[in-house]
Amino acid sequence: MNNKAEDPAIWNDAMEAQKLMRERQLLEEGISSVRRIEKELEDNVEMIELGEEEGDDEIVAEAEANLKKLLADAERQQVEAMLSGEADSNDSYLEVHSGAGGTESQDWANMLLRMYTRWAERQGYKVEVMEVHDGEEAGIKSATILVKGHNAYGWLKTESGVHRLVRISPYDSNARRHTSFSSIWVYPVVDDSIEIDINESDCRIDTYRSSGAGGQHVNTTDSAVRITHIPTGIVVQCQQERSQHKNRAKAWDMLRARLYEAELQKREEAANQEAASKTDIGWGHQIRSYVLQPYQLVKDLRTGVESTSPSDVLDGDVSRFMEAALAHRIEGGAGAAVEDID
């Protein structure tokens, strides 16, 4: 690969050259990570041996703690190596849609939006809010965020599906336990090198007033844009910019991404199985359950991975669930997916 990269003739095709350079950079980063892990492993093993010889329990304990951190790092690198899908390295859109249940589900949708935003920030990703539709009393009806960073789509792609919450409702004066559902839909940002042809006559474009925080401009002009692709029923919305023109351009990008993601799913047998089971947001179709009452437990129904600390998970600690779901998918398991709802 280095020989190809150093050949001046490669720049005759700028797009191919950029692709090769990205591949080389990824390989170099992977090799550097492996070498770093090997070096830290050797250093800490030597530190343990030295501590045991000198009877220094503090040094041994410190080195053992470092090894535990190193193991977690190595496991993450192993998962990163699995992200070799066509669009895994791309930025990603993530949509949240509340299910039936009014304020309860809308509040739950808002909690999920925060969870994924916190997760992305922990990974060093940049998050941009593309659109938010607020609930009548609390929470949100729907929202779309753009997660920007290497392998953003690869990490998030198994999160598509229905998420179920069980808790004592803060909106119920009788303090009864409620079950709420919301769905997540994840799709990759389309690379400029990928051509997605869309017939504009197949699309309906609507404009409306933005909702949510945003200063005086919000709710004063029809700057937000919604595009419906009639043949597939796919709907995308953007209200990020003050300019309707800019929102329209970004909405077209989002539609191209959704159509591309649909094509990717057709190529995967597991995704075909998911499509056959698509249904309403509700009982029996969730991929993960979050129970706050009468006990504390988050459980992924595809992999069996659990956490007894829902507060940590809802604060963005979801990488372990993603890692297990990715491994499950690569081994041939099929994750759940759902249609988004308006």
Automatic annotation (TrEMBL):
Annotated PROSITE patterns: RF_PROK_I
The protein's role, per its UniProt record: Peptide chain release factor 2 directs the termination of translation in response to the peptide chain termination codons UGA and UAA.
GO molecular-function terms, A-Z: translation release factor activity, codon specific
Cell cycle is among the record's keywords: no
Compartments, as annotated in UniProt: Cytoplasm
Sorted UniProt keywords: Coiled coil, Cytoplasm, Methylation, Protein biosynthesis
Matching Gene3D superfamilies: 3.30.160.20, 3.30.70.1660, Release factor
Processing after translation: Methylated by PrmC. Methylation increases the termination efficiency of RF2.
Entry-linked InterPro entries: PCRF (IPR005139), Pep_chain_release_fac_I (IPR000352), Pep_chain_release_fac_I_sf (IPR045853), PrfB (IPR004374)
Gene name as annotated: prfB
Family: Belongs to the prokaryotic/mitochondrial release factor family.
Domain (Prokaryotic-type class I peptide chain release factors) ranges: 209-225
Coiled-coil regions listed in the entry: 34-80
SMART domains: PCRF
GO cellular component, one term: cytoplasm
Record PTM N5-methylglutamine, positions in chain: 216
Name by which UniProt lists this protein: Peptide chain release factor 2
